[in-house]
Predict the structure of Zinc finger protein 593.
Amino acid sequence: MGKSKQKGNHKSDKKKNIAKTWKTKRRTKDLDQIHSDMKPETAAKLLHQEVDYDVTGCAQHYCLHCARYFVDMKSLKEHFKTKVHKKRLKQLREEPYTQAEAERAAGMGSYIPPKMVEVKTQPVEEDMD
């Protein structure tokens, strides 16, 4: 009968997903970027944005920790109860990686374990309904 003309297709599905994972459209913010967004002056700007019709929910309902926009206040409150949000809060408890920590890991100083930062869900303003 002869050999099949298709060879080595078992790994092809992994190659397809590489392009999808690195697309900038689906890329979320990294934890260190979210830590910088959580600073009070930046957080105030993100939570009280001007109306932008190009963004979901006109940019009025934003989860600071997950860097996501929501359609309305109800969906934002439901998001606060989800496993995804709670997992993100747990990831954000660890202080972001710094250059000084990288140098210590490379042997240029003694190791200091990362500190834990207290992270709570953002307050929700009811008048935005």
